[in-house]
Amino acid sequence: xxxxxxxxxxxxxxxxxxxxxxxxxxxxxxxxxxxxxxxxxxxxxxxxxxxxxxxxxxxxxxxxxxxxxxxxxxxxxxxxxxxxxxxxxxxxxxxxxxxxxxxxxxxxxxxxxxxxxxxxxxxxxxxxxxxxxxxxxxxxxxxxxxxxxxxxxxxxxxxxxxxxxxxxxxxxxxxxxxxxxxxxxxxxxxxxxxxxxxxxxxxxxxxxxxxxxxxxxxxxxxxxxxxxxxxxxxxxxxxxxxxxxxxxxxxxxxxxxxxxxxxxxxxxxxxxxxxxxxx
Length: 279
Fold this sequence. Notes:
Blueprint: E1 7-11, E2 18-22, E3 25-30, H1 37-40, H2 52-66, E4 70-73, H3 86-100, E5 105-108, E6 126-127, E7 133-135, E8 139-141, E9 157-160, E10 165-170, E11 176-186, H4 189-197, E12 211-214, E13 225-226, H5 232-240, H6 242-245, E14 255-258, E15 263-266, H7 267-273
Parallel strand pairs: 3-4, 4-5, 5-6, 8-9, 9-12, 10-13
Antiparallel strand pairs: 1-2, 2-3, 7-8, 10-11, 11-12, 11-14, 14-15
Helix pairs in contact: 2-3
């Protein structure tokens, strides 16, 4: 019998990165780098110098300190969807080559922004299918824009990015600002079983999936979805993430944590308390 208790998942407060450890084996995961996002703003007359070196420096510091064996990039490594931005031709290969030199293995789980990413990826870096990958049949990773492959539901915990979860706050002057957050949610097993039965043969299928972790974006310019605003449920559950759309994730009672580790409350609590302006 496998010893699943030997595996630990640890958000690296205050960094938007997840550490997975099994005995002396360590895996570091970050999501939503969106390298090249600055170039996409030039069409609107907004010119921002590349922030890739700043982003790379933050990741290099983590890799140097933690010394993981594997680095998992959980989707949206690059930003442009339709075509490559000019800066991506240089910044993406340089970013990936630098990280590859610091770990034994770099694995990319592609996201919806990662079309043709192979063109920019140096040798020695693995790109898996968009259905995701599983570590030790215990922790499954997929970006979140598409449905995970069935094998991932044999894991107890699934980890996604894609949503860029954040909380919107307003001060006394009604100025709005966002704080990135972690989301930990449990599943509603009966709903999941019903949905899976339409997709796969569930006979003798061992369903172990118990919780979903939604990671904040590693790129601090990608503040993303304000989960406490009225349009979140319609947008995120209705369109952005298929696994949320099924209703098998208990978002209402999910746990919300700020990047510094402070527990803010459940999803339903956060939507109530943050409607009141800060003093």
